[in-house]
C-alpha cells in the first residue's frame, strides 16, 4: 500500500521465559524488542506500508541490536536517536490455563524517558507521511516524553496528517508529577482515531458514561476532531483461551466485528497493538466495517505468534476475515 | 507380525521451525527425514512388520544421515541407492489456532527425481514380500520416477503381492509433461487398496461422482482389482483442533470409524501416512472394521507426536481403539 | 506462616523429554529433582512455611546438586544424609491429546532404599515442628525405609505433632517381602490426615466399602486418630484436558470443592503433591472448606507449571479460589 | 563513511550443525543467510557504508525471511527481485582439531541461477554509487548469471565506478557449458581490484607464473585497468588454529600485513569475504598499507564470530590493527 | 570449615549470549545472578564455610528468583531485604581469540543503590561471624550504599572481626558526587586484607608508587590495620588464552604464586572474585603461601566454568595446587 | 570391507551436561548410548564392516530407544535381548583447561549384569563372523556376565575366529566376589590381540614388568595365543589439550605410531574404543604399522566429536594418517 505512517514511542527489550516456565525456574530468556507503537508500525510494514519509527536508544551494542531488529521488521530507522543511558526492558512469563501471564516492567530512567527530543525535526519526519500514531504510554513516561508527544501531535495536525492515539491508560506510569487529565485531553483534541475503553475515557477524558456509545458521543463533543473510536472486547476464559471481538464508532453507529474463539493462545502480548495496526491499515484502505474486521482478525492471528510483533501477511489476515484457509495445512 | 512390506518413494529432509515460530523469526530448524511412503513403512516397522524402503539418496554425508535415520526407524535400507545429486527438502511451520500450518517444498531436481532405477531388481526386492505400497506422489515427480513406480506395480502384481496406493493428488507436482490421467489409471488397475477422496477420483480416475459410495463403485467397475477404498474425514476447527474419522469401502459396504476429537494437535504432518500404515497393518491382521478403527486411532496418535513418523506401539493404538488408558499418566 | 513442617522421603532425579517428544526420539532431557513428600515441602516453603526434608543422597556431585536444588526450593537441608550409592531416577514422557503420559521408574537399590536411618535423631528433627508428613511410598521401598517411616511416625506422635500421610498405594513397589497390610495400618493409626481413595482403603486398610463416606467412617473406626480424610477426583478427558475437584471428610461431613476445567495441561506430575501441600497449608491456617478449596486450586495451578514442584505463591492460589485474576495478563 | 557500494550475487540459506556436531548426529540446524558478495556488503554496512545488494529470491516466506535478514544486516534491499523457484542452500559442519570443516552445497537450479536480470536497471542501481563488487562465483553459476555480471561490470565501468572482483575459482561450479577463460578475462579487464591467488590466475587469466609478484605484473599487462591485486595466506595448523596474513600489490610493490595467530577459531566461513570487505573499506578511506592491515584484522575477527557475516565495528577492527584492547574483558 | 563469613554488596541479573554469539545476533540469553561480593561468598559456601550475604532485591518475582539462586549456591539469605524498585543487570558477550569479551552494565537506580539500610542490624549480622568482606564497588554506587558499607566496616571493626576489601576501582561508577579519595581511605583504614593493584592504590589511596612492594609499604604506613595486600597478574594473550598468577604482601615479603597457563578459557567473569574467595579461605585456614596458591588455583578453575560463580570443591582446588588430577578424565 | 565382527558388552545411557556446565548447574542433559564394546562395533560399522552386538536391555521404551540407536549406528541388533530391569547409565561432565572431566557411573544391578545369557546361541552368533571383541569390563560386572564372556571366548576360539580383548581394568567394578586374576587369565589365553598397559598386566595377568616390551614378552609366554599387544600413550597437558600416540607389539618388535597434538578436545570419552576399533579394522585389512597408524588417527578424530561413538569415515581416518585435508574447510 502506497502510504506512509509515522509512529513514536519507547521500545524495550523483552525478556521472556521459554514455554511456560516461571521466572524462578528459568535460566534462559528469549529476547526480542517491542513497544506498543513500534508493534503497530511492524504490523503495517508487514503489509507493505512505508513506516518510520521515532525513538531513542542507548548508544551501545544493545541499542544497535534493537535498531537492527527494527530494520529486520521493515521499519525506516533514520529517526532513531542514540544517547548515553539505558534501554528499558520488560520480563514476560507466559501463563497457561488458570495461571495468568505476568509482565514485570523495568523501564524507568531509560534513554527514551530522558530524551529531550531536540534533535527531531517533525516537519522533516512528517514530510510525505499520511498518518501519525501515538499512545498514552508516551506522555505517561516523563515530562520530556510528554513534550515530544505534544510536539508531534501538533506538527502532524498542522500538516494535515491523520492521527491515531491508543489511549492505553497505565496506572503504573504517570510518576513524574503530571496526571493524565493534565495532558491527554490536549493530545486527543487533535486526534482522528482513538482506541479507548470506558476506563480510559474516565482517566484520560473525565468522561464517566456507563455506555460505550454515550461515551463515544461525549468524547466527540469534547474533541470534535475525533472521527473514530474503537475498542476490543476480550473474554478471558483462561490464559490459554480467550474470545475476542472489536467495536468501531464512526460517529454514526457502533459497528461490531465477528467474535473469535482463541482456543490455544501462544502469546497474547501485542494483541492490542496488532488490532491498532489492523485498524489503521483498514482505514487507510477504506471501509469502516472492513477495517474493523481486518483489525480483529489481525489481532487474533497475533495470539498464535511468539513475541510482540505480528508477523502475518495482509493476505493471511484477509483470508481469516473471509473464513478461508483457517487452521489448515497449506502446502 | 510375520509379514514383509515394501514401500517405494522419495524421502526428503524436513526442516521445521521450533514451537510455533514463523519462518521469518526462526534461526533454528528441527531436522528429521520424511516421505509419504517411508512414513508408512516406519509405522509398520514400529509394529513389528519387516519393511524395506526403496529410494535414492545423494552420496554425501546428508544422504548417509538419512539412511541412518531409516535404520533407526527400523527399515531395511539395502535398497537405498546412492547417486550424485541433491536431496529434496521441505520446510514446515507449525500453525496454531486460526493460523494455518505451512509447508514449503524444495524437491525438484532431486536424486530421486533423476534416478533411473536401473539398479533395482524388483524380483529380488519383492522376494518374500507380502505387500507393496506406493503413492501418487512418485509418478508425479518425473518421468523416470513414474517409470520406476510402474515397474514396481507391474512386478508386484505379477508376483501376486498385495498392492496399496495412496492416490494423493498434488497439484504442485506433475510438472514433467504428463497428467495424472496419463499414468494413474494404469497403476490403480493393479492395486488392491486405494486411498482416495472425491477430488482424487476426479483427477486420477476421471470419476466425477458426488457421492463417495457411487465413486467407489465406479472405481471398482473401471479397475476390478480394487478390493478396498478408503479415505479420512477431517474437520479443521482450527490448526490446534481437528476431528478425524475414516471410512472403508470393502466392495460391499462403507464402514465408518469412530470419530476422534483431536483438541491439542502437536504435529499433523504425517497424519495421513499413519492412517495408511494402520490400514495396511489392520488388513494384514484381518477384519475390515478392526483395520479401519486401527487406522484412525493410529492417525490420531500421530497428531500428538512431533515429526513425520508415528512412533507409537501397536499396543498403544489398540488401547486407544478400545478406549483404554486414554490420556492418563501411566507409571 | 509461622509454622514448621517436616517431610520424609526419597527424592529422585527426574529426566523428562522436552515438549511432547517421545523417549525414542529425544536426545536431550530436562533435569529436576522430585519426590512426593519433598514436593509437598516445596509447596509449603513457597508459602512461607518453614520446612525441613529428611532424606539420603549419594555422596557425589549429583547428590550435592540435588541438595542444592532443595535449598533453591526453600527447604532446610540439614537432615539430608550422604552415603555411598546411587540416586533413584525416573523418566517422564509428556503425553498430549489421547496419548498418555508415561513414567519409567529406575529407583531400586537407591541410597535412600538402603539407608538405615541410624543417623537420624527424630527428637531433634521434630523439635519446634508443627506437622509431619509421610507417604505410602516410603514403607513400600524397603524394610529399612519402612522402619525409618515407623520411627518418624512414632516420634512425631509421641511429641504431639500433627501427622499427615498420603496413602498412595503403588503396585510396582512393595517388592521387599512385606505387603501394605503388614505395615500401613500401624502408620495410619497415628496419623491425623490421610489422603486415600477407595483402592487405597482396600490395599492399605482392608476396607472394602463402595461408598467414600462409608469408607471414611470405617477408617475412623479402625484408626480413631484420623481427623481428616481427603482425595481428589480427576476426570481424564485427555492427556491435555482434565477436570479436577477434591473432597474432604472432617469426621462430620464430606465437603466438596469447586471443580476446575484444566484445558491446557502443561505438566500433571506432582499435581497430587500440590493438593497435599495445599491441604496441610489450609488446615494449618484453619477452616475445613477453605483448606479444601486452597488444596484444589493449588493443584490446578501446578498443572500449568513444568516440573514436579508447584512454584506458585499463596496469593496466586488464594486468588484462584476467589476467581480473581484468572488467566489474565498481569502487568 | 559517506560512500555507497553495490554488490551482486546469490544468497543462500546456511544450515549449520550446532557446536561440533557431525551431520549424522544433528537433529537441529542453525539458520542464517549468506553469500560471498552479500557478506562483503554486510561488513561495509556495519562500518557505516551505504550498501545495496542485487539478487533474486524465491517469492515465498523463506525468500522474505532472507530479505529481512539482509535488512537486519543493514543492506538496502530495493534491488532484491522475487521470482518463482527455490533458494540455494548449503550445509555447514564445523570441524575441530585435525577434523576438517565441511560444506555441502545445494545451490543448483536456484532462483538466482535462473534469473534473467531483465528487471535490473543498472543505471539506476549505480546512481550515486562509488564502488561495485562482484565475485567469480556469479559467472560460474549459469549463463544468465554470467550475463548479469557482465552487464553490471560494463555499466559500472562506463559510469566510472570503481570495481572489485574476488576471482574465487570454484571447480564444482562452471557446469553450464562455459569455462572460466571464456568469461573471466572480460570481467577482469574492467576491474580495479582483484583478489586472486596463483591458482585463480591460472584458471581465470591463463597466467602460469610461480611467483606472486610476477603473476601480478602479468595480470596488469593483460588487464591494465587493474590497480590492486591481493590475496591472503592461511596456514591451517588445524581446524581450530590457523595463521592468517595478507598481501597487496599496488602496481609498485607487494605490501605484507602483520600475521595473526588464530588459536581458537569459532567459525571460519566468511573469513575471505571479511577480508574483501576490509580491503574495500580501507581503500575507500585511503592508504594502501592501512587498507591491507584493516582487511586482515577484519578477517581475523570474523573467525571469532558464528555465522557468515562479520558483525564487528570499524573501531574493533582498528583497535586490533593497533594492538589495543585485544582479547580483554571490556566493561 | 567451621567459620562464618559475611559479605555485603549488590547482586545483578547477568544476561549472557550463548557460546560466542554477539549481542546483535543473539535472540536468547543465559541468565544467572552475580555480584563481586556474593561471588566470594558462593566460593566460600562451596568450601563449607557458613556465609550470609547482605543485600537488597526488588520485591517481585525476579527478586525472589535471585534469592532462591543465592540459597541454591549455599548462602544464608536472611539478610536479603526486599523493596520496591528494579534489579540491576549486566549483559555479557563472551569473546574469543583476539575479540574481547564485553560487559554492558545497567545497574543505576537499582533497589540496592536506593536502599537506605536502616533495616540492617549489623550487631546481629556479625554475631558469630569471623570475617567481613566488602569491595570498592559498594561505596561507588550511591551515597546510601557508601554509608551502609561504612556502617558495616565500622561495626565489624568494633566487634573484632577480620575485614577484607577488594578495592576494585571502577571508573564508570562514582557518579553520585563523591570521589574514591573521599571515602575509600576511611574504609581501608579498618581493613585487614586488601586486593589492590597500582591503579587502585592511586585512585583510592593517593599512593603513586611504581613498584608494588613500595606501594604496599606506603599503604601500610597510611593504614596500619592492613596485614595483607594482594593482587593478580593476568597476561591477556587472547580472550581464549590468559596466564594468571598472584602475589601476596604479608607485611614482610611479597610472596609469588605459581603461574598458570589458561589455554581454553570458558568464562573469565568472576575470576577475580574466585581469587578473593580463595584468599579468604586460605587465610582462614592459615599459611600465607598456601593461601596464595589456593587463591590462584581457585581462580584458574573458575575460568573453566560458565557463569559468575566458582562451583568447584576445595578438594579440586587443593589438587590443582598439588598438580594432581589435572585435566584428566576422572571416573 | 567384507568382514563380520561380533562384540559383546553392556550399553549404558550416557547423560552429559551441555558445553562445559558442571553437574550442579545443569538442568538439561544430552543423551546418547554407549559402551566400550559397542563403541568399537560402531566404529567398524562406519567403515563398512558387518557388525552385530550382543547385549541385554530393559524391555521398556528406553531399552527400545537404545536398540534403535544401535541400528542408527549401523549395528545388527538381532542379538539384543530384552528383560525386566534397569538400564545402566553414566553421567558425564566435560572438563576444560586444568579442570578434569568427570564420569559418575550408575550401572549396578542392570539388566545386563543380571542377564543369564541362556538365550544366546554362540554358534549361531559367530556363524560367518571373522572376529570377536570383548573387554575386561564384562567379566568385572557380575558372575553371570563373566560366564557369558567366557562362553563367548570359548565358542569363538573353538570356531577359529580371531579374538581381541581390551583388558581395561576398572577398580570400581569387580564387586561380585571374584578378582581379575580369577578370570582374566583364562580369557586372555584364547585371545589374539590384547590392549593392555602396565597396570593392566599387573592386575589381570600378574605380570610386574617395568618395561613394556618385557611385559609383552612375558604375556606371550603365559598366553601363547596372543599375537598382538597394544596400548596408547596419552599426555594430559590439560582437559582441552592432550597428546596421543600408540604402540603395537607384534611378537617381533614394538611399532610406534606418529604422535598427535590434540589441542582443542571436544569429547575424549570413547577415545580408547575408537583406537580399538581402528586396530581391529587395520589388522583385518593387514599391515601392522598401517593398522597402528589407522588406530591412532581414528582415536584422534574421535576427540573432535561429541558423544561416545566415532562417527568418522574410513577415508577421513586414512587422510589423517597421510596428513591430507587436515583441519581444512572442505567444500
Automatic annotation (TrEMBL), chains A, B, C, D, E, F:
GO terms for molecular function: kinase activity. Residues 3-304 form the Carbohydrate kinase PfkB domain. Transmembrane segments: none annotated. InterPro entries: Carb_kinase_PfkB-like, PfkB_dom, Ribokinase-like. Keywords: Kinase, Transferase. It holds the Pfam family PfkB. The keyword Transferase applies. Belongs to the carbohydrate kinase PfkB family. This is Sugar kinase.
Amino acid at each position: 500500500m502506497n502510504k506512509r505512517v509515522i509512529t513514536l514511542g519507547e521500545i524495550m527489550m523483552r525478556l521472556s521465559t521459554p514455554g511456560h516456565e516461571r521466572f524462578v525456574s528459568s535460566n534462559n530468556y528469549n529476547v526480542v524488542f517491542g513497544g506498543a507503537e513500534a508493534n503497530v508500525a511492524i504490523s503495517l510494514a508487514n503489509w507493505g506500508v512505508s513506516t518510520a519509527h521515532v525513538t531513542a536508544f542507548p548508544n551501545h551494542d544493545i541499542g544497535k541490536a534493537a535498531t537492527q531488529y527494527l530494520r529486520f521488521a521493515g521499519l525506516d530507522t533514520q529517526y532513531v536517536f542514540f544517547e548515553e543511558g539505558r534501554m528499558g526492558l520488560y520480563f514476560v512469563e507466559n501463563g497457561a490455563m488458570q495461571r495468568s501471564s505476568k509482565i514485570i516492567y523495568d523501564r524507568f530512567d531509560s534513554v527514551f524517558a530522558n530524551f529531550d527530543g531536540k534533535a527531531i525535526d517533525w516537519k522533516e519526519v512528517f514530510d510525505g507521511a499520511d498518518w501519525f500514531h501515538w499512545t498514552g504510554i508516551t506522555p505517561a513516561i516523563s515530562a520530556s516524553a510528554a513534550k515530544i508527544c505534544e510536539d508531534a501531535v501538533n506538527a502532524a495536525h498542522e500538516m494535515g496528517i491523520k492521527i491515531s492515539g491508543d489511549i492505553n491508560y497505565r496506572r503504573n506510569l504517570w510518576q513524574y508529577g503530571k496526571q493524565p487529565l493534565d495532558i491527554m485531553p490536549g493530545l486527543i483534541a487533535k486526534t482522528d482515531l482513538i482506541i479507548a475503553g470506558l476506563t480510559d475515557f474516565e482517566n484520560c477524558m473525565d468522561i464517566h458514561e456507563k455506555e460505550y456509545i454515550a461515551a463515544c458521543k461525549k468524547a466527540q463533543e469534547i474533541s470534535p476532531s475525533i472521527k473514530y473510536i474503537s475498542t476490543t472486547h476480550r473474554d478471558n476464559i483462561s490464559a490459554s483461551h480467550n474470545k475476542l471481538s472489536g467495536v468501531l464508532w464512526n460517529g454514526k453507529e457502533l459497528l461490531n466485528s465477528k467474535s473469535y474463539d482463541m482456543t490455544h493462545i501462544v502469546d497474547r502480548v501485542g494483541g492490542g497493538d496488532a488490532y491498532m495496526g489492523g485498524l489503521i491499515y483498514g482505514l487507510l484502505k477504506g471501509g469502516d466495517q472492513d477495517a474493523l474486521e481486518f483489525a480483529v482478525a489481525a489481532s487474533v492471528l497475533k495470539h498464535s505468534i511468539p513475541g510482540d510483533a505480528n508477523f502475518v501477511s495482509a493476505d493471511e489476515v484477509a483470508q481469516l476475515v473471509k473464513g478461508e484457509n483457517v487452521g489448515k495445512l497449506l502446502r
